[in-house]
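User: Before I run my own analysis I want an independent prediction to cross-check against. Here's the chain; please return only the structure tokens and, at the end, one sentence I can use as a sanity check.
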Amino acid sequence: MVKKPKFGSWISIKKINKLNNFGIITVQEPWEILEPKITTTPKFVVYNNNMALSHLEELYKSLRKFIKKDFSLIGIGGGSPCDTAKYIAWKMANESKKKVDLFLMPSIISVDAFLCSSIAVRVNGKVNYIGESAPEEILVDYELIKKAPKFLNRAGVSDTISITSALGDWKIAVKENNDNFDQSVFNRAREIAKDLMDARTEIKKVSDKGIKSLVQGFYNEVKLCEEWGNARPEEGSEHFLAYCLESITKKHYIHGNLIGLNILISLYLQEDNAVFPIDDIHQFFDDINLNFKPEEQNISYASLQKALLKVQDYVVSEDLFYSIYNSPQLILSEEKVEEIINFVKSL
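Assistant: Structure tokens:
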């Protein structure tokens, strides 16, 4: 079960200063902010952004000698440090048979990794999910998060607002593929998205209220998906096009900005099956200053075109959820792809 976050100003420092036997997985930026305020000494401080499984295995081997009885491990940062800390804690429990008290402290809320018990790693450049680690506490430190660039924190909206296009895919999957469906889960997901859109003013400012709204959206979405049994209520064609594009370009983009672009493409293609009006979502993105346009992400239209031409085969080969890209009603011919590109240019 997803752990409910705790909120406050400088609560990360208060927690760290109460610990004695602990190690830290982080990256440079948040640690430079926190280190001068820390009065206790960690057994190790490791910077990590490399989520290749082979690298994580070597990292685990190098750190396990430091991890003794009653040890705490703290992940501070974005998705990579938090997932690294989860991985080390999981490996210690499963291979070394030592329980580690895990604490997660996001320094940026661009993705929901700090709330997910599953661990995202990369194998041959592709994301895989292995194992689970449940933290003792998740601490959302307003002051730490506000030190990150606002545009990165705003990007965190997309891993929840992706509900808006994922629900349209779910409708299509029920009609065309006889997928499992639950109206109450569908309705709850829709309300989570609406609540997030209602908080647009504070999200744009990245105020305390805005941060709490973003994290609460994450929490509600992750909790709902855990109850349902998979990510169907929040993940669909908008994510699948992102995976396809990254498989072509071999580049990693700011996740939320790319998902934002793809949400609009999905809503455009879903037509009458779209659950949310495309103009409402476009306006929401403009209102919060989300950098979703290809030019703002260094995505060439040629690369986007290649991804659109490939995505229908990609979702089948990767065995992804049934979505608009599986529908026989959609034929992504060169002419249709050109139409989509012109739509994107008009945004």
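Sanity check: DSSP finds 16 helices and eight strands in the chain.
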